[in-house]
């Protein structure tokens, strides 16, 4: 498969990584698992056994004129325990490496089919200036875009962090959620070759 470069020329990529069929159920499963895995799951409340006190009967069963009460840690008392107390839990869902890679392949292939992947030879900035990067993106007619580099580039990172609807990541930190978050993806040829090496 040949992909057209935005600046000039073409680049060859293998169909095994960038020409697979769109598998919506698999992508949904992997994205859901990824988002679930990012949940902290640290919410916790005290049930009636975890609340301090409540050992002695507050007052006598009869003769006071008040309602019967056996413990001050009752859920109907102010300061009592919670009836169905939330406990820390793990939201992780298991996704095999084979499934994860297949989902990434499917997303990338669909981005190419929808002309949402813009490929350039390289993205180099003379200085970490937002104006320089904004000018380059305007040349490529990109508004909501993810910049995908081979490795972390400090100049591009510093230039992009103040632009709305512009994200940046390297191949190592690429995930299915960030790939579908933006309207288009600006990827360099070295990054494309590294992705091809990892997925094929």
Structure summarized in a few sentences:
The chain is an alpha/beta fold. It has helices at residues 15-18, 24-37, 97-113, 130-139, 154-160, 176-181, 189-199; strands spanning 2-4, 10-12, 117-120, 145-149, 166-170, 184-188. The chain folds into 2 domains: 2-20 and 107-199, Ribosomal protein L4/L1 (Ribosomal Protein L4, Chain: A, 3-Layer(aba) Sandwich); 46-87, no CATH class.
List the helices and strands and how they pair.
Blueprint: E1 2-4, E2 10-12, H1 15-18, H2 24-37, H3 97-113, E3 117-120, H4 130-139, E4 145-149, H5 154-160, E5 166-170, H6 176-181, E6 184-188, H7 189-199
Parallel strand pairs: 3-6, 4-5, 4-6
Antiparallel strand pairs: 1-2
Helix pairs in contact: 2-3, 4-5
């Amino acid at each position: 498969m040949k992909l057209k470069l935005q600046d000039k020329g073409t680049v060859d990529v293998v169909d095994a990584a960038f020409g697979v069929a769109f598998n919506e159920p698999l992508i949904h499963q992997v994205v859901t698992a990824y988002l679930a895995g990012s949940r902290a799951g640290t919410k916790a409340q005290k049930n009636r056994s975890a609340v301090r006190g409540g050992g002695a009967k507050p007052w006598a069963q009869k003769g006071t004129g008040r309602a019967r009460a056996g413990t001050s840690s009752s859920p109907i008392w102010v300061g009592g325990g919670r009836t169905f107390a939330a406990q820390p839990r793990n939201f992780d869902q298991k996704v095999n490496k084979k499934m994860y890679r297949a989902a990434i392949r499917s997303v990338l292939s669909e981005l190419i089919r929808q002309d949402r992947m813009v490929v350039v030879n390289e993205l180099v900035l003379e200085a970490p200036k937002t104006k320089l990067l904004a000018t380059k993106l305007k040349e490529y007619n990109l508004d909501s875009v993810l910049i995908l580099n081979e490795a972390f580039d400090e100049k591009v990172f510093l230039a992009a962090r103040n632009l709305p609807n512009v994200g940046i990541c390297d191949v190592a930190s690429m995930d299915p959620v960030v790939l579908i978050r933006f309207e288009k993806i600006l990827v360099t040829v070295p990054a494309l070759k590294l992705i091809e090496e990892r997925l094929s």
